[in-house]
Amino acid sequence: MRPLKISPAVVTIDSLPDEILRRILSLVTTKEAVATGILSKRWIHLWRSVSTIDFTGIRVDNIKSICLLNEFIDSVLASRDAAAGGSNFINTFLFDIYYRDADHARYSSFPYILKWLNLVLQHRLQHLRLRLDLRTPRWVNIDHFLPTLPISIFTCTTLVSLDLCWFRVDLDVRFLRIYERLIYTSIMRKFLVVL
């Protein structure tokens, strides 16, 4: 009798379920995830339902690259909203960008950043990392160039972690009341968990 030969099952990446593919896409930058659309028809729209939006490792050197970046991020966020009718969950939003010219960033990019933040916060965002790297002359006061965080970050009930670098928080009376409430709620949760 001849021994039975069993060939190992061949698993291709295209045979994996969508949930696993979305998990894989969440491990790369959003630019790379969008680019996977050329792999097959199945992948064209898969990136739109990834729960991590990752704009990290980006360097913008001039006004043209800032405009291209703004258009790309606007397009990504609009495509995600259109694909899910505006109800697409965003677990993590990572934004880590180097701006060679602080003036260009201040006038051409920061208004967009605030708009994007307000948009992603509406999608039950849990983890937010915002990091800017601005190049300014040593004699310039950097505080004048930093964007001010919108108050919606501090009122977002789903936000679990916040990692900031080079953003400004204006502490006015409204913020202090909200901050007081957040601290009180946080303390009460910890106290109740301990009991």
TrEMBL record:
This is F-box/LRR-repeat protein. Residues 10-58 form the F-box domain. It holds the Pfam family F-box. It comes from Trifolium medium.
